[in-house]
Design brief:
With 243 residues, the protein is α/β, with parallel strands linked by helices. The protein is built from eight helices and eleven strands. The strands form two sheets. The protein has an eight-stranded parallel barrel with strand order 1-2-6-7-8-9-10-11, surrounded by seven helices. Strands 4-5 form a two-stranded antiparallel sheet. Helix 3 packs across helix 4 and helix 7 packs across helix 8. The protein is globular and about 60 Å long.
Length: 243
Amino acid sequence: MSEIFAHRGCTEGFVENTIEAFVEARRLGADGVEFDVRRSADGALVIHHDARVAGVGLIHETPVADLPAYVPLFGAVIDVCDGMRMNVEVKNKPGDPGYDPSGSLSREVAAELVEHGRPEGVIVSSFDAPTIEAVRAAEPGLPVGLLLEARANLTDALALAHDRHYQALHPFFAVVTPDFVARCHGEGLAVNVWTPNADAHLEAMVDLGVDALITDRLSAALALVARREAEIRKEANGGGHSG
């Protein structure tokens, strides 16, 4: 059965990428959480999706002490996500504010995960292939997944993942086909899709057998999986009829 990852934590009544959002995701029973890592002007690893914090400025130009209190440190998020899997997206690709081509951001992310005792149950992802390759070079035991833009060529992505021995591909859900999922699984690659939210899209992804759904509708996705698991148990017990 597909795993359910809370996209930027539980955002149903909570601010995304905050400690409260991650705590709520764990309380609701999420298999994992997805969140975004950036680096402040003074080298702190912080969790925030956009390069800019509203009313403050660009994160890579702002010391951590000047960021709002709701922007958490990476280490604090690792700690509160104990018991859940983590999809750590490193926000770093050419053209982004503060883009780091040196690999130092990747090395720091990998080191922080190891320091906090979380090399297990983690996958590090990015839209930038060199970024995840630098993570793996720093810590070969850390699984990595390549995020794919909505218009990415899936055949080319699969070939790249095969050649470079990635552990997963993270495509936009709407372009995923049964053949793509089968080919990935045949290569030993996980398929973790972003971001199915409508009921029909959640159901379609579970039907395709993707490995994880990264969704904004955590409660609905968890309820769907619970229903599907109950149906499987009922079938295994002969449909609930006694002989």
